[in-house]
Design goal:
The protein contains 8 helices and no strands. With about 180 residues, it is mainly α. Helix 2 (about 30-50) packs parallel to helix 4 (about 70-90) and helix 4 (about 70-90) runs antiparallel to helix 5.
């Protein structure tokens, strides 16, 4: 309940602080890649905090920077998250446009799985019956991949949690050389 909300609020506050530090470190005229990463992360924080209008602005700028620099994975993610934000704002037509753009961008990659993690944030969009038939089919396939991924998360976490890791340490060696 409220302790979870308080904990989440604390995490959001920490994230905002880190983003402010990162923005200061970037300086007044950052290169496109770091600026795009900052906008993507800032947009995702705004999405988590349900500040949808900020999400729209930040993710559209991030998508533009990544597309113009041929960063396809990040451009696909940005467009997908932007589509989800637009859908949440009730702009279904615009949302579908950016969803199609995300699909188009990642279709040029070897794997389409780059959208699965980001798609966890936009499941209502992917399940929407308002999507056109072609986009709806791709969205449902992505939603199936998300559900498969989420179904595998718990067993994966359990297997990682109980795995013992041993790192062998070799004794230090001292070598003295004279000239």
């Amino acid at each position: 309940g409220s302790s979870s909300a308080g904990s989440r609020s604390h995490l959001f506050s920490d994230a905002r602080g880190l983003l402010q530090v990162a923005e200061q470190l970037m300086g007044p005229a950052p290169a496109n890649y770091p600026r795009g990463i900052w906008l993507l992360e800032s947009g995702q924080l705004a999405l988590a905090e349900n500040h949808i209008s900020q999400v729209k602005e930040q993710l559209s700028k991030a998508a533009f920077l990544f597309e113009s620099n041929n960063q396809r994975i990040l451009a696909g993610r940005s467009n997908l998250l932007l589509a989800g934000a637009l859908f949440a704002l009730g702009e279904a037509g615009e949302a579908e446009k950016y969803l199609e753009k995300a699909f188009r961008i990642v279709s040029e990659l070897d794997s389409q799985h780059v959208l699965v993690c980001a798609a966890r944030e936009v499941k209502p969009l992917l399940a929407s019956p308002a999507l056109s038939p072609a986009t709806g089919r791709r969205a449902r396939r992505l939603l199936e991949q998300v559900e498969l991924f989420e179904g595998n998360l718990l067993p994966l976490r359990r297997s990682l949690r109980f795995r013992e890791m041993e790192i062998p340490l070799s004794p230090p060696a001292l070598s003295i050389q004279a000239l």
